[in-house]
């Protein structure tokens, strides 16, 4: 995770950064005294509210901010999804809608979102205090925060969790002004002092689309909060005879749940030994319900829908085996860093995962689970059968948990990023 030493935008910027380092207070009794970081996100549907439907982004933001705190940094936070000056109806429905409305309706909706995003960007920039040593922005569609900044003396880092112009137009079908969104997103990456991507595939995609040198992009995978996801939640009914395979997250086509359904049908057509629990919501659910019915396994599938954030660990505690079966995406690669992998393993749960980078790294570095070729029903069925014969295993569960706490907590992940920021003179 090394990044190129970036040149400051001006001599004044260099002097400001030197001044920041000079005025930073020395450690007192080992406690860090660091400069402030402004954390901004213009996504209208993302907040830390327990009722937020954006479970993944909420967990990511909360974990990242806790990681900053544990590393001694104060974060001054602005999330457009928590801005009460923006009508709640706009915040709740901006990015969560699905389907393909008429052209005029979709265009009008995008223009409204663009206008609100401009306002949210203005609000976010006003939120940056003079004491900020760094601005860290989580990117959102129709980004208006970093693009309109006038003060380039404060380093600006942009985090990307995916090519949003692609996701919104192809995976969620809720974007009409695709060219506008793409142009703004790529320009945001170009203007940033550093880009943080969640995977190698995403780094390469951004580098190609924005024409950036790869060493201007740092890869920082997702992580977990080991205090929230703890094995002591796992109280299972050992009187039952079936194996529970669980999934938590956004129910989209790329999640590969159809592959799991077909594999379960192949192994257990009567539903006597295998059960599936799906925790979450998303546009793929109606099609998956029809698929489970056509396969004759609808009685073996439980849909919880969205659950309160604090209940997610308890739902995961019901699992014997946790599923993360992403498939290749139309854009040409699976660029996500599945946060669920780290949360599953933090609970001491074995994973059944498609063979992509994050899962492969976890398994090879102290994790516990079985990998299968993405989209391969037969190989998934074979791995599921193998897992069923090797569970439970308390020793592996404990060692898996220990590896996650040491190497994949948000505290350790943010510490890695801070090292890069210091080495590039951005902090």
From TrEMBL:
PANTHER family found in the cross-reference section: D-INOSITOL 3-PHOSPHATE GLYCOSYLTRANSFERASE, GLYCOSYLTRANSFERASE
Q: Which CDD domains match?
A: GT4_WbuB-like
Protein name, as recorded:
Glycosyltransferase family 4 protein
Q: Name one Pfam family in it.
A: Glyco_trans_1_4
* Source species: Actinomycetospora aurantiaca
Q: Where is the Glycosyltransferase subfamily 4-like N-terminal domain?
A: 60-228
Q: Which UniProt keywords apply?
A: Glycosyltransferase, Transferase
